[in-house]
Amino acid sequence: MALVAISIQSVSFIRHAFYETFKHIHIGLLATLSVIGLWYHLKLANLPQIKLLIGAIVVWVIERSMRILRLVYRNIGSGGTKALVEALPGNAVRITVALARPWTFAPGQHAYLYMPSIGLWTSHPFSVAWSQEAENPHAEPGLASNTQEVLALRKTSISFVIRARTGFTNTLLQKTEVAPEGRMYTKCFVEGPYGKLNLMRSYGTAILVAGGIGITYQVPHVRDLVAGYANGTVAARKVLLVWIIQSPEHLEWIQPWMTEILAMDKRRDVLRIMLFISRPRSTKEIHSPSATVQMFPGRPNMDTLIDMEIESQIGAMGVSVCGSGSLSDDVRSVVRRRQSRTNIDFIEEAFTW
Fold this sequence. Notes:
six-stranded parallel sheet; alpha/beta; globular
């Protein structure tokens, strides 16, 4: 009965509509009941397959124990891991996490956030939108004499932009909005990072398409490609960022990071940005700051846009998309119809499982 309930509860639309409930019932109740029931079934029937079940239980315990140990190691010491949460327009929050230990992050990675004051013991995965290192205010003064002391002088911070939906993200937004100046500090724990595959560095022409909050996945790739172009460590010679948002207010989500990217060395030689405002309040909101940063009303015609890039394509073209399912489907269809004409690949990142 528990296994039947799991199969019904795990249907995609049910899982996504009631994520918090799904996670607690699926792991905390139904999976446990399934293992207990299977244990007694095999034991009472004296079947040798009980050894396989024991092996599965051991693997599960080891995996969970390793995650707990990693979580403790990464977040304890040097003042612990703390988060600054800021309310943003468009029902979103920006979280800047000062990590207890130095980490090395790569574009496309994600991490799990635990915020006891918001979601007790539950964790949620989010794309790392930005990472940087600064001087550790808790470090002892003086010159570093070994590797450990050098690491201690650095304080890694990572940032996320999260759009409120239901459950944890909605509670987080509500608590932040009622805080003084829409900002609050809270204790948190971070698990990760996960995912290390960075495919975009090998393409001469890179088109990065983002819909709404999907920009959090693309921003680290943009910084990595621009920096790599400047120091000659990537194949990219043309990088185009296409971001589709509902309102110009949403530009504030990544404003501090985009300012830093636009000031990078040789940025104008390689990077162009096209912003599409799908629901502008007036035409006065639409103005292009420069030839390399352009703003347009409405939604992009992906057929026309990609055809224009193919005409001046350098090397192989990689088209990456992160956004709604319909946006990914549209871009996938456009790329597929052109694969017989040019060297072009499609890469999708979906905020789901």
